[in-house]
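Page 37, continued from 36.
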């Protein structure tokens, strides 16, 4: 678990919502933001990033890579589960 995951998990725990933390989802979004940042230069803020990559606003984006059963599993919430449909970029 990286620093983002630790921070989000700690926040969820402090709010009494540890059951809402999802490790695979967290790593997916970190990976997607990193990937999009690698594809461009001169992005100064998240608004510019989303303008260039509107797919980042798609709630269903993870399901291009995971089946719903795999992504919604207890294991995926607790730890990293690799994509079972399409590899991440």
């Amino acid at each position: 678990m990286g620093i983002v995951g630790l921070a989000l998990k700690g926040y969820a725990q402090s709010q009494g919502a540890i059951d809402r933390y999802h490790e695979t989802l967290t790593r997916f979004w970190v990976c997607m933001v990193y990937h999009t940042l690698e594809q461009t230069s001169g992005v100064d803020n998240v608004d510019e990033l989303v303008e260039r990559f509107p797919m980042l606003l798609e709630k269903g984006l993870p399901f291009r890579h995971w089946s719903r059963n795999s992504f919604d599993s207890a294991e995926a919430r607790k730890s990293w589960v690799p994509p079972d449909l399409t590899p991440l970029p």
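The helical segments are 3-14, 23-38, 46-52, 68-71, 74-78. Flag for discussion at group meeting. Residues 3-78 form one domain.
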